[in-house]
Amino acid sequence: MKPLIIPFFLRNRGCPHRCVFCNERIISGNAEAITKAGLRETVRATIAASRKSGPVEIAFYGGSFTGMAREEQMELLRMAGELIGEGSVHFIRVSTRPDDIEGAWLDTLKNRGVRAVEIGAQSMDDGVLRESARGHTAEDVREAVGILKEKGFETGIHLMAGLPGDSREKFETSVADVIRTGPDTVRIHPVLVFRDTELARLYERGVFRPLTLEEAVSWCKVALARFTGAHIPVIRLGLQSTGEMERAGGILAGPWHPAFRSLVEADLFRDMALELIAKAGGIDSGQEFHVAPADLSNFIGMGSKNLAFLEARFGSRPVTAKTDPSLPRGALVLRDGAREYRTSIAEVSLV
Ligand code: SF4
To answer: Which end of the chain is more exposed for a tag (fewer CB within 10 A), N or C?
Structure first.
């Protein structure tokens, strides 16, 4: 059952320096400092507004949890621990840097209710990590995930597409490397140029060019297909929209879209439709596409983009799509009388 994750932002606490792309003020929506009363009230209000019935997790994001002074870590764990003791929260998740993982301290975190640790890898290419001023290597990521798994934590990895020095090939190699590392979940987002960052200065000097939205969708659809094929859930694709992002001047450049994941999934469904039409030897009026109800909008595409594309490619005949509740999310079926052709995000041949 999917957990209800309630995020609280550390606002760069525990970070040894600033990575070139990072503006936590914008990403966190200028979140307030974490206080005992604020944490309690946010948890209460989020649970009351949620329709999820799974476990509730408090997440400390937006900094390097294990990089903070140990007393600061304990203070946050005590605040969250009170809610665990009362039964309203079940676990704690934290995000941190791969070079801030220390085996003995992890035992303390575990005893205090931390179940999941998300590692900010961002890339598995050492040159890209250097150019992004991350201050760690890909090997640090592999080691950190290894230690966390050994200690029995759920592990997550964050990846970014389009960092300084990145290329499509390096990004795909990073994806393959993360799959080999074997985290339980991943989060991916394309690089945006936020104001007041080193990246903004590089962009303004013409040294850094962010991906276009089309490039970002194309890179990330490969990642989503590969991770899905490897049974590693992509629990977030694209950044959560915040008021600071929507405000003029917050994002200077980059492939920003508030529904980025939908764009990526729609692109995959278009590729899947093309694959099934090729398997069926063309499309005619007796055929119908079937998808899970939650995927109908992905099949159709934003603004009916996919339907328009297919109809332009295969003539004016309307492409018919129906929902089938028996199908899992991410699957597409083309039915043609008694014949049936199937594919899914995990199996698609990418265009
Ligand atoms: S470690 Fe994470 S939170 Fe800290 S500066 Fe780098 S990207 Fe930002």
So the answer is: N
